[in-house]
Write a structure and sequence with these properties.
dTDP-4-dehydrorhamnose 3,5-epimerase family protein; isomerase; RmlC-like; 10% helix; RmlC-like_jellyroll; RmlC_Cupin_sf
């Protein structure tokens, strides 16, 4: 497994496993505490694992947490997703930077997203399972959502949106979210 820094988002990493394939399929390690530790992250900090299943065109996000934020490891375990990270940490050298990835069950790559970054994705295949490893328990009172189609972010979502939650449909703009954080 190798870890690569994400230049557009300070502190973000892409972890790419080495799959062993044969006539049965493949096997790979999707989490390695030593590799995570080698880039300065605490592998024991993650306290919750979650899974979402989406169908083609479903869009989830852009989400982040207020307060201390939430760091997470995200992996598409089946299918393919278009994954988006937006750096919203005011003190970060990559503040407002954006990064886009295609994560898939074929590669099993895992993306580390630092606390204070917004995250969202769109399913590109008939079924896409997305796994999350999160560094603190979820508190719905800290949920923040930003409009997926905010013109300031200009995210190039690859497909028309087939479905999304009401919360995501009604999300405020980035400017509104940032203004509310100031007050």
């Amino acid at each position: 497994m190798k870890a690569t820094e994400v230049p557009a988002i300070a502190g973000a990493y892409l972890f790419e496993p080495t799959p062993y394939a044969d006539e049965r399929g493949f096997f790979c390690r999707t989490f390695d505490a030593d590799v995570v530790r080698s880039v300065g992250l605490d592998p024991d900090a993650f306290v919750q694992d979650s899974l979402s299943r989406s169908v083609r065109g479903v869009l989830r996000g852009l989400h982040l947490r207020s307060g201390a934020g939430e760091a997470k490891l995200v992996r598409c375990s089946y299918g393919r997703i278009f994954d988006v990270v937006v750096d919203l940490r005011p003190d970060s050298p990559t503040y407002r930077g954006r990064a886009f990835f295609e994560l898939s069950g074929e590669t099993q790559a895992t993306l580390y997203i630092p606390a204070g970054c917004a995250h969202g994705f769109q399913a590109l295949t008939g079924t896409a399972d997305t796994s999350y490893r999160i560094d603190r328990p979820h508190d719905p009172a800290e949920d923040v959502t930003i409009a997926f189609d905010d013109p300031e972010l200009a995210i190039p979502w690859p497909l028309p949106v087939a479905s999304m939650s009401q919360r995501d449909r009604e999300a405020p703009s980035l400017a509104e979210v940032l203004k509310s954080k100031e007050s």
